[in-house]
Amino acid sequence: MTGAFALLAEYERRSLAHSVGLPDQLDAPGLWRGVGYRIGRRMLASSFDEVIEILPMPPVTAVPGAQPWMLGVANIRGSLLPIVDLKQFLEGERTVLQESQRVLIVRQPGGDVALTIDELFGQRSFLEEDEVSADRIAEGRYGHFVDRAYAHANATWGVFSLDRLGRTPEFRQAAA
User: Collapsing DSSP states into helix, strand and coil, what is residue 121?
Assistant: First the structure.
């Protein structure tokens, strides 16, 4: 075999040997799955149903007269989306934007919105028996959006309702 062909054959062998789990294992009773991310010091996860897409931070055009947490608008595939600094909305502290910054695109009444997050962890799965009190992670403004939490990998993960966030009157009123 030639070098390139042997390499492709090895990739195929490894791919076929990798088992991703049976469908009944992926949707097992007592298993909750979502997208994991960090805002400030809080580890959060939101339902896959609430996140449309995850993108790198797009170029943002400021909007005069907007709330401080409203960074501006961005052109995403021909649609103007508001870009919200979620950390500033929740904690009053601006996110330090980085080149690796990600935004969660979320559907809300009246149109989609992009929310900045500090760090993306990807898919997270939690078992019902790992549920813990959400009191610590649901302090302050987070209490309106986090109603349960899970202990996993030496961290407490709060389940953050992006749907509830999108229906919050203060969030929907971005004018200063």
Answer: strand
